[in-house]
Amino acid sequence: MKVLLIEDDPVAAANFRAGLAPEGHEVQVAEDGRAGLLAAASADFDVLVIDRLLPGLDGLAVLQMLRAAGIQTPALFLTALGSLDDRLVGLRAGGDDYMVKPYAISELAARLIALSRRARTPARQMRLKLADLELDRTTRTFWRAGQKIELKPREYEVLEYLFRHRGEVVTKTMLLEDVWGFHFTPQASLVEAQISRLRAKIDQGFSPQLIHTYRGAGYKLDEA
């Protein structure tokens, strides 16, 4: 994965690069907004990571100018500005994701990989399939081994989210923010209880098991 980091703090940039390098990801750093704008417009990247508070041009202006120029490279804001209003402003400016410093490098890497994979998906599929689990987005219906599975609205949203990110580890924070819309951390049992209910409907009595827990990381929908 080729990443452009637009970050004026050299220590933060070095830590970012050191955290992603072991996974084989290539990181290019732009030290201010204008340099980041030029780099993003003149080279191909899988994902952009942009600080909000930048010299020259702030991060919002950088992304707005890129989007106005038709450059749709997935972008994640990585910033100390963490209020709900800050997040909404960043997403409305064209951001695809938003994380607040300090951050866990494992979660950041998972989000970046998810963004880059989404960008490579050519079209929104309305019917998805994994092993004998099927989803019809038009009717919001699931089947397992040909049996229709009745899900409550929140159960459907969580399972569809896992389905759209199948093969990827999804963190509790991602679920809380993207499914529930929470931008704080309520009791961790909220996600755990929902996953437990889904397992009882999706996996109990079926093989193979499709919902997997990665302790300290999150959950993944996959055959293995």
Describe this entry's structure for a reader.
The relative contact order is 0.10. The protein has helices spanning 10-20, 33-42, 59-68, 84-92, 105-120, 153-164, 172-180, 189-202; strands at residues 2-6, 26-30, 47-50, 75-79, 97-100, 127-130, 133-136, 141-144, 147-149, 211-214, 218-221. It folds into two domains: 2-120, Rossmann fold; 127-221, Winged helix-like DNA-binding domain superfamily/Winged helix DNA-binding domain (Arc Repressor Mutant, subunit A, Orthogonal Bundle). The longest helix has 16 residues, at 105-120. The protein is elongated. The strands form three sheets. A five-stranded parallel sheet has the order 2-1-3-4-5, with helices on both faces. A four-stranded antiparallel sheet has the order 6-7-8-9, covered by helices on one side. It has a two-stranded antiparallel sheet with strand order 10-11. It is of the alpha/beta class. It starts with a strand and ends with a strand.
What brief labels describe this structure?
224 residues, alpha/beta, Rossmann fold, Arc Repressor Mutant, subunit A, five-stranded parallel sheet, four-stranded antiparallel sheet, 8 helices, 11 strands, 21% strand
* Silhouette: elongated
Query: How many DSSP-defined strands?
Result: 11
Q: What's the CATH architecture name of the largest domain?
A: 3-Layer(aba) Sandwich
Sheet-strand content, in percent, reads 15-25%
Q: How many structurally independent domains?
A: 2
Largest sheet: 5 strands, parallel
Find the structural class using helix and strand composition. Answer: alpha/beta
Q: What is the CATH class name of the largest domain?
A: Alpha Beta
Please report the distance between the alpha carbons of the first and last residues.
Answer: 24 Å
Helix tally equals 8
Low-confidence stretches: none
The average pLDDT is 88
Q: What is the topology, as strand order, of the major beta sheet?
A: 2-1-3-4-5
What is the succession of H and E elements? EHEHEHEHEHEEEEHHHEE
Fold-level CATH name of the largest domain = Rossmann fold
Report helical residue fraction.
40-55%
